[in-house]
Design brief:
Helix content: 10-25%
Strand content: 35-45%
Radius of gyration: 23 Å
Order of helices and strands: HHEEHEEEEEEEE
Largest sheet: 4 strands, antiparallel
Number of strands: 10
Number of helices: 3
Strand order of the largest sheet: 3-5-8-7
CATH architecture of one domain: Sandwich
Distance between the termini: 83 Å
């Protein structure tokens, strides 16, 4: 009796691990999960599950953030200065692009961005980042993570430079 139960358990486990054949509707539904609210809000994030995709990705019809630059070197500044830079990006995809969030690892670096209006394909927008160098000295590398309903849905931007310590 134990062996019959064990055999059924193994058989059940093996059959549950099979994917739907690629190209079928059930495979496509599980591949890309996107949500558009009834009021036209595109702010939900598209999540692609790599384990389901098995290396195949059809991202041709998705929104896409293309930045003019991902790294800004502000050179050398004095401690206490405020560094401000504008990262420009374009929606090079085929669907409206909506930023969900942009954040940094500390409160000294603050991104300002638009989350209210979808960016249509081909349109340009920007993220303005300010970095307060108070109590920050020497080499600095400040990451800003941007998350949107695009592929890829996460992009890292960086402010880099050197902050000279105040003379005492």
């Amino acid at each position: 009796m134990k062996y019959h139960f064990l055999f059924l358990l193994v058989l059940l486990f093996a059959s549950s691990c099979q994917d739907s054949p690629k190209g079928t509707d059930s495979h496509k539904k599980r591949t890309i999960k996107a949500h558009k609210k009834a009021d036209g809000d595109y702010s939900e994030i598209i999540r692609i599950e790599d384990s389901i995709l098995d290396g195949e990705r059809d991202t041709s019809s998705m929104a896409k953030m293309t930045f003019e630059e991902k790294i800004y070197d502000f050179g050398t500044v004095n401690e206490g200065d405020i560094v401000k830079h504008t990262f420009r990006y374009r929606n090079t995809g085929k669907r409206p692009l909506m930023l969900k969030v942009a954040h940094s690892t500390c409160g000294c670096t603050v991104p300002h961005y638009n989350t209210n209006t979808p960016l249509q394909p081909g349109e340009l927008d920007s993220i303005v980042v300010t970095f307060d160098t108070t109590n920050k000295t020497e080499k600095q590398n400040k990451p800003i993570t941007v998350i949107a309903n695009s592929y890829p849905n996460k992009v890292k931007l960086y402010l880099r430079g050197f902050v000279k310590q105040k003379s005492k």
